[in-house]
Fold this sequence. Notes:
Elements: H1 13-27, H2 34-59, H3 62-73, H4 76-85, H5 91-101, H6 108-134, H7 143-176, H8 179-192, H9 195-204, H10 212-247
Helix pairs in contact: 1-2, 1-4, 2-3, 6-7, 7-8, 7-9, 7-10, 8-10, 9-10
Amino acid sequence: xxxFTPNNFTPNEFTLTRFKIVVERAVRPVRACLxxxxxxxxxxxxxxxxxxxxxxxxxxxxxxxLASAIERFGDPAELTSQLQAVVPSSDAVDRxxxxxxxxxxxxxxHRALRHGILSDLIVLAFMVGLGLAYxxxxxxxSRPMLxxxxxxxxxxxxxxxAFTFLADRMRQALMSGARKSRIEAILIALVxxxxxxGLGFALWLEFSRMSTADLLVVLAxxxxxxxxxxxTAMLIAERQRYHQEWANLSIDG
Length: 253
């Protein structure tokens, strides 16, 4: 029996873990985007905790209150069906964005490759549309223009791949908190600042063809990109922590 005082009905860590397992049995099988499933977990966990606190206030016995809360929660499989029924069809778009941006448990290289290919597809669609509008059919495009387009695609692929890879390295460095990791984070930020000038080489082929205004834009973006990288790394770290917290719960048995 855990310590209990009449004025404290908050579940302890062991009881809260039991509730999370019960909630996860209902939520994990649901086909929904990560954000929607997070809201489901929070609402169900809040509900079962409130039931537990009410029962504990009435009985003063934690084991009885725990059993009562789990019983009143209901059959997880039945609740899964109810949760799935309220997921809108538009959630498929959100699940697609979840897949494109970040999938918990996947390798960094796999995610970086996907981001690189995705960025190239977007840039390619833009270039083809622009070319058809101003240059005519693709068969009439000059060879230098096609080679220049290929260099743009290569530059954007390398930029997206490197940014994703460095963001994950930054996440690891920030989560560690050690002095060595802080130095690594600074070095990663400096390297990230070179990504935009590197992309400039691909877009303009050589800096001698860039105007002063172009060069200033490149330098300004080079200073902003490290801040965006840190923000991205923190978002990834938060999502991974949340995923691991719930994925590590054993819902069998």
